[in-house]
Amino acid sequence: MALKQISVFLENKSGRLAEVSALISNAGINFRAISIADTADFGILRMIVDKPDDALKLLETNGFTAKENLVLGVEVDDHPGGMAGVMKLFDENNVNIEYLYSSLESGTEKAVIIFKVEDVQHGIKILEKYNVSRISHF
């Protein structure tokens, strides 16, 4: 199963990220993983939240340009090389990674790597074939 990721287009101006953070948190939605990439003019905020459908609707209702993407959440041991094994499997099985980011799981010795891959179904098949621990939510 894939995770729902929300991507939000943000103008690169003071306060926009704070607006999104307040909007999400005031609605009782919890961030689980977050990443932002920016240029001089805009940024793309990518996030995994505990209520993605609610977050998407909330953002759109409040005038933000947002969309949902499917991504893969892979649980790995939090030690050197934890991510390398998954990267090797993807490389050997022609899973094209567009980007990734990570989050640590509180109270465990695990990390969650969020992969945006070109072909989500192919990525899922490879993870299943090699019994890689995936998450459907967190």
- Percent of sequence in beta strands: 35-45%
Average pLDDT reading: 93
Largest sheet, strands/sense/barrel: 7 strands, antiparallel
Question: What is the H-and-E element order?
Answer: EHEEHEHEEHE
Query: According to CATH, what is the class of the largest domain?
Result: Alpha Beta
Question: Would you mind describing this structure in some detail?
Answer:
This protein has 2 domains: 3-68, VC0802-like; 71-135, 2-Layer Sandwich (Alpha-Beta Plaits), CATH 3.30.70. The chain is built from 4 helices and 7 strands, in the order E-H-E-E-H-E-H-E-E-H-E. Strands 1, 2, 3, 4, 5, 6 and 7 form a 7-stranded antiparallel sheet that branches. The chain has 138 residues and is an alpha+beta fold.
Structural descriptors:
VC0802-like, single chain, 7 strands, Alpha-Beta Plaits
Summarize the structure.
By secondary structure, the protein is of the alpha+beta class.
Map the helices and strands:
Layout: E1 3-11, H1 16-26, E2 31-38, E3 42-49, H2 52-61, E4 65-77, H3 84-92, E5 97-104, E6 110-117, H4 120-129, E7 134-135
